[in-house]
What does this fold into?
Amino acid sequence: MANRSYLYSADSMPNEAEIPKRIRCISEHSWDIPLAHKLMVGHGTTIVPSMIWNPPIGIAADYADGAALLRSLLRAVGKGLEKDAEFAECVARTTAHLEKQQAKYFLLETGEIVSMTGDDPAASVRRLTSEDIPDTVANAEAAIAGRKDDWLASVRADWQKHFASFYSEALYFSFPE
It folds into this structure.
């Protein structure tokens, strides 16, 4: 079984007392937290209790701003992949799923990924939210504005790694309504 990052949406954030009432499945990605997941939790980023594991290793963020950032980067990446039907299908499937599962917040579950290193999972999530995610967002915003052509070219060259996650209404960890 692969270790995965899991991305959900909900209209409230989990807290110490309870998880949100309705949790919508967005995506899961094997062996990594992909660029797309980092972008989607890149605005209004906060650490929250996990809905799956005990340590405070969940990440919540603004849904609308994160989805908009991802869509903008996909457009920028697509400017060099106009003839790539697989990329076009990935973008169409991703954007349709994001519209269908829209809520107030993205909720990223990192437990399986941050546990792979042997480091303290809570410290890993703090680094993720204070360094990695902000750096990723800054690079994406600069690339969209035309100031990071090399970074954009590297993302374009390996777009499957960054964007071709499993998007579905049912993930390995799903929550009944």
Summary: The mean pLDDT is 93.
